[in-house]
Design a protein that fits this description.
The chain is α+β, with helices and mostly antiparallel strands. It has helices at residues 24-30, 101-108, 118-129, 170-178, 188-192, 218-227, 240-246, 281-288, 293-298, 305-308, 313-318, 326-332, 428-434, 441-451, 465-488, and strands at 5-8, 11-14, 49-55, 61-67, 80-82, 89-90, 96-98, 203-207, 210-214, 232-234, 253-256, 266-268, 272-276, 336-341, 344-349, 354-356, 359-360, 367-374, 380-386, 397-406, 409-418, 425-426. Keywords: FAD, Flavoprotein, Iron, Metal-binding, Oxidoreductase.
């Protein structure tokens, strides 16, 4: 195989001698690209943000902002990245001669104070600057009037939700974002979008008896997993990257599955939607475009845009965490998982998938290929996340509803819960208390009482067991109030 390398700011950089577990952040800083910083090492502060060229949804290439502190450097073999240093114009000696428009606006509007977080903000802002469909300020009309989360130039502030400024400089940062126009006709990064993104390359990178392996096909991946059932599967690495950084976890053998074509498909069939296990959540959100309302409610509350740019359903389900945000929503949608191994595939109802704390029916030589959501969808859905912060936080409780209410009667109900048991669960008793009954204050009050008793909530630093139980009941009452208001309006 060709020696592993990454194109950084237009120049190929060999990955060697970095260890397979080395993060992209450490790789860059060791080579003098010190704009990216380590703040939290967990993907919560965005100081490490960089841009990666990925296959686009509406164009050949999208510039996607990611957390460099979480991604293993070997996972970007053959790929193309841009750091804060690579945004401005430089002369032949590498001396900066002209600021990038994002850097310019950040400078003149006071968006940089201590400067520690600035390069990360700049990369996340530049990713949004190059997003297709964003309406530049000079083209804005009355129809483009902005709300508190979108600028008159179409800039989506959620693109910065994973970036933390400890100097409380958010207002001038927002001003800089809202002042951006359209990229110029000769902007090299804008022109780069019209060319295909780098294709994934087969990788086998070994140092110090540890290996990162990127297979070319699903068949090769499951064969490797049969040979090495102890291997760690990595897609977005938003969970494994934290284990590497915070708990010093190391793996002898890592299999990268994030670019496998078979895991990156999204298909809408007559009776179901199939979402590949390695499709990033941001891409799912853009491609579904609100057609699954429950997921449309979930996505903005799932971590941050930086995390969603790499995080996947397969990874969220594969970790088996009882506080992951996607399992309750997928449970309410009646989803199933497609498990693949060298022997073939099998389909498992998600309600039967989890068997214990971070345990599932998935065998050591299996991987999640896809998630299937049956159609038609329930007409009444909601996702309620109770957490200490509105965005970029771990749930204390997550509740997802999918109800079919016809002529005032609940015909069917699926309720998914997270944070109240050792696994994500269906609220079966509450569902039974609703089905066949009128959607009325009395029925909802009784069902809310039942919902408060579902699961086995525990007390921890996020919430007490009593609070979690209370929030379950309140969540159903909130849904009733919302649906009643919708009918009355």
């Amino acid at each position: 195989m060709v020696a592993a390398r990454i194109t950084v700011n237009g120049k190929a950089e060999p990955i060697s001698p970095a260890a397979p577990h080395t993060t992209v952040l450490d790789f860059l800083r060791e080579r003098g690209f010190t704009g990216s910083k380590e703040g939290c090492a967990e993907g919560e502060c965005g100081a490490c943000s960089i841009m990666v060229a990925r296959p686009g949804v509406d164009q050949p290439t999208d510039w996607v902002a990611v957390n460099a502190c979480l991604v293993p450097v070997a996972a970007l073999d053959g790929q193309e990245i841009v750091t804060a240093e690579g945004l401005g114009t430089m002369d032949a000696t590498g001396t900066p001669t002209e600021l990038h428009p994002v850097q310019q606006e950040m400078a003149v509007r006071g968006g940089s104070q201590c400067g520690y977080c600035t390069p990360g903000f700049v990369c996340s802002m530049a990713s949004e600057y190059y997003r297709p469909g964003r309406c530049p300020a000079e083209q804005a009309t009355e129809a483009d009037a902005h709300d508190h989360e979108h600028g008159p130039n179409g800039f989506d502030l959620h693109s910065l939700s994973g970036n933390l400024c400890r100097c409380t400089g958010y207002r001038p940062i927002r001003d800089a974002a809202y002042a951006l126009g359209a990229p110029s006709a000769d902007d090299p990064l804008a022109l780069r979008r019209e060319q295909p993104a780098p294709a994934p390359v087969a990788t086998e990178y070994t140092r110090d008896d540890r290996t990162f392996r990127r297979p070319e096909t699903l068949a090769e991946a499951v064969r490797l997993l049969r040979e090495r059932p102890d291997a760690v599967l990595v897609a977005g690495s938003t969970d494994w990257g934290v284990e590497v950084n915070i708990r010093a976890r190391r793996a002898d053998y890592v299999i990268g599955i994030d670019r496998l074509p078979e895991l990156r498909e999204l298909r809408v069939e007559s009776d179901h939607i199939e979402i590949g296990a390695a499709v990033p959540l941001t891409e799912i959100e853009r491609r579904l475009d609100g057609s699954v309302p429950l997921l449309a409610q979930l996505f903005p509350q799932f971590a941050s845009r930086l995390i969603r740019n790499t995080a996947t359903f397969g990874g969220n389900l594969g970790t088996g965490s009882p506080i992951g945000d996607s399992p309750p929503a997928l449970l309410a949608l009646g989803a199933s998982v497609v498990l693949a191994s060298a022997d073939g595939e099998r389909v498992v109802d998600l309600a039967d998938y989890f068997t214990g704390y971070r345990q599932s029916v998935r065998l050591p030589d299996e991987l999640i290929r896809a998630v299937r959501i049956p159609l038609p969808l329930a007409p009444v859905t909601a996702f309620h996340k109770i957490a200490k912060r509105r965005f970029d936080d771990i749930s204390s409780v997550a509740v997802a509803f999918a109800l079919d209410i016809e002529d005032g009667i609940v015909r069917s109900a699926r309720i998914g819960l997270g944070g109240v048991a050792a696994t994500p669960i269906r609220a079966r008793d509450t569902e039974a208390a609703l089905v066949g009954k009128p959607w009325s204050p009395e029925v909802v009050a009784e069902a809310a009482r039942v919902l408060r008793s579902e699961g086995t909530p525990m007390s921890d630093h996020r919430a007490s067991s009593e609070y979690r139980s209370a929030m379950l009941g309140r969540s159903l009452e909130k849904l009733f109030a919302e649906t009643t208001e919708a009918v009355l309006s």
